[in-house]
């Protein structure tokens, strides 16, 4: 099994890239979609193969959970979610 930090980093990248791809879809950035899809494929295959080889254990689940959490938070911060950068919605 590779060091847990590699699995954490790969999961971080996977979740961050998924968030970026969602932004590409919402904003209509058609040219970026194939690039992000290719990067996602590389990271997804690495994470899936690593977890399949390692099996279910805390040394597998913990890096994936932490990498996913950090990847999501960083993507939210990078795209302005979580900051008061948007005007409040008067209907809510």
Tag the structure with descriptive keywords.
3 helices; mainly alpha; 0% strand; 92 residues
Can you put this structure into words, describing what you see?
This protein is mainly α. The chain has one domain (4-78). The chain is 73% helix and 0% strand. The protein contains three helices and no strands. Helix 1 packs antiparallel against helix 2 and helix 1 (4-27) packs parallel to helix 3. The chain is flat, with a radius of gyration of 16 Å.
State the total count of DSSP E strands. Answer: 0
Number of helices: 3
3D shape: flat
Span from first to last CA? 48 Å
Q: In what range is the share of β-strand residues?
A: under 5%
Rg value: 16 Å
Provide the fold topology.
Elements: H1 4-27, H2 33-54, H3 58-78
Helix pairs in contact: 1-2, 1-3
Question: What's the gist of this structure?
Answer:
With 92 residues, this protein is mainly α. It has helices at 4-27, 33-54, 58-78.
